[in-house]
Design goal:
Number of helices: 8
Number of strands: 0
Order of helices and strands: HHHHHHHH
Distance between the termini: 27 Å
Shape: elongated
Strand content: under 5%
Largest sheet: none
Structural class: mainly alpha
Length: 170
């Protein structure tokens, strides 16, 4: 995908005055921050991922993306290492150390579980994930109409998946 098409997808015409663009961006930023710092909030999402591990469409829902859980895993692992170094050098309170260690470990477990479930699903069902990835990459965003052939195809796949239109046999 060329850089121009990618930029057009992220920054459609008139993006600076689009309320939907700003609300969606702010929501995504808040969810990414919450996923990185407090993955415990997404424990229900982890349970949903485990329950629906054989359904790629359910796993691909935007409440917790692969990147958010990867960031959470990395940040909490780094936090655990920093906590260990501070405990050794400064002698932190035992209660504080135990609470922060538990927090980091819980976040790491939740992130790792979701990442493993999604990875297993991607390995087991590559065709379904290829369609979902195509739609995610090419679908028009923020309510703008499709402009390219790929965007029309992605919108058609979205409509078929949501049940708006029936797929035609080819």
């Amino acid at each position: 995908m060329r850089i121009g098409a990618r930029l057009r997808g992220e920054f459609p015409r008139g993006w600076w005055r689009s309320t939907r663009w700003w609300i969606t961006g702010t929501r995504d930023l808040a969810l990414s921050t919450a996923a990185a710092v407090a993955t415990v909030v997404f424990a229900g999402e982890m349970m949903r991922a485990v329950r629906h591990r054989d359904e790629p469409r359910t796993l691909a829902r935007p409440s917790g993306t692969f990147e958010r859980y990867t960031a959470s895993l990395l940040i909490n692992s780094a936090g655990l290492v920093a906590l260990l170094i501070m405990t050794i050098e400064d002698g932190l309170l035992v209660v504080l150390t135990a609470l922060l260690t538990g927090w980091c470990l819980l976040n790491i477990v939740i992130s790792a579980t979701v990442l493993v479930v999604v990875a297993q699903s991607r390995i087991r069902q590559p065709a379904a994930w290829a369609k979902l990835d195509f739609v995610e990459q090419h679908a028009p965003r923020y309510g703008r109409p499709p402009e390219t052939i790929e965007e029309y195809r992605a919108q058609q796949l979205q409509d078929v998946a949501s049940g708006k239109i029936r797929s035609s046999p080819r």
